[in-house]
Amino acid sequence: MVRPLIGVVPGMELNEKHYKITKNNMLAIEQAGGIPLVMPYLTNSDMIDELIERIDGLFLTGGDDIDPIYFNEEPHLNLGPFIPERDAFEMKITREILAKDKPVFGVCKGAQMLNLAADGDMYQDICGQLKGELIQHSQKAANYAPIHAVELMKGSLIYRLAEEKTIRVNSYHHQANRKPGKHFIISGKARDGVVEVVESTVHRFALGVQWHPEHMKDPVSKKIFRGFVAACEEGKREKKKA
Fold first, then answer.
1. Burial readout 17-29 (b: 16 or more C-beta within 10 A, e: otherwise)
2. Cα separation of 240 and 193, whole Å?
3. What average pLDDT does this structure show over 112-141?
4. The dihedral formed by the CA atoms of 94, 59, 162 and 187, expressed in degrees to the nearest 10
5. Beta bridge partners of 190
6. Which residues are catalytic?
7. Is 86 in contact with 9 (CB distance < 8 Å)?
8. Which of 57, 71, 136, 197 could disulfide-pair with 6, CB 3.0 to 4.6 Å?
9. What confidence score (pLDDT) does residue 53 get?
10. Which among 70, 94, 95 is positioned nearest to 7, based on CA atoms?
11. Chain segment 4-33, per-residue pLDDT in tens
12. What is the 3-state secondary structure (H, E, C) of the chain?
């Protein structure tokens, strides 16, 4: 069996000297049966197209904030740092991956970028833009510790993967998705109404979760990564037959 090659988008230090990625991102894909490949922020369109042909799936990791230019807003007072080069690369490669119907999985910032690539929008700062009392979405507990519940929509992809109606997740964010993109739905929310899961209704596998399953040690997190890698394997087999 030839294992699927999965492109992984890294973060970058603000001084733009070093790419960065936690080992748990890579281990989660490896342990699910995929081969992770860290990708630089390419700017050459032909090279990006060639990269897309070679990878079997795309993993969008967490990271800094997102430039609000991608959803036609001016910067909110509480907008944090963002990397323009990363946002530009992620937006282009995600849109092309979706157009080719190759599997894509996004966590935290990656979930937001996935939704924006499908023409959705997002909150720049949930504390400053959402009404009502919010639960803690930037936890002080260890990064693997589940801190709050997420209610999943029955029949959705995330529900089928988790095999549970309510799950508990970790949380490290102050931004969140708002309106789902074209052919996307909201399939999971925290109990304060914050969007926790978006997914496509037309693609093979296009899923974004607001938490960080790569850091968690629970069975549900492993099921999500296995489901993603399995979709990459299926796509790879179909491409080989064609």
1. eeeebbebbbebb
2. 43
3. 96
4. -20
5. 150
6. 108, 212, 214
7. yes
8. 57
9. 96
10. 94
11. 999 999 999 888 789 999 999 999 999 999
12. CCCCEEEEECEECCCCCCEECCHHHHHHHHHCCCEEEECCCCCCHHHHHHHHHHCCEEEECCCCCCCHHHHCCCCCCCCCCCCHHHHHHHHHHHHHHHHCCCCEEEECHHHHHHHHHCCCCEECCHHHHCCCCCCCCECCCCCCCCCEEEEECCCCHHHHHHCCCEEEECCECCCEECCCCCCEEEEEEECCCCEEEEEECCCCCEEEECCCHHHCCCHHHHHHHHHHHHHHHHHHHHHHHC
Identity at 182, one-letter amino acid code: K
Beta carbons of 97 and 104 less than 8 angstroms apart: yes
Sequence-distant (6+) residues with CB within 8 A of 89 are: 9, 41, 42, 43, 48
What's the token pair of residue 105? 């999985």
Please name which of 219, 2, 12 lies closest in space to residue 109, comparing C-alpha atoms. 12
- pTM for the predicted model, two decimal places: 0.97
Dig out the tokens for 25 from the structure. Answer: 């991102």
Do 55 and 6 meet the contact criterion of CB atoms below 8 Å apart? yes
Q: Mean pLDDT, to the nearest integer, of 120-127? A: 98
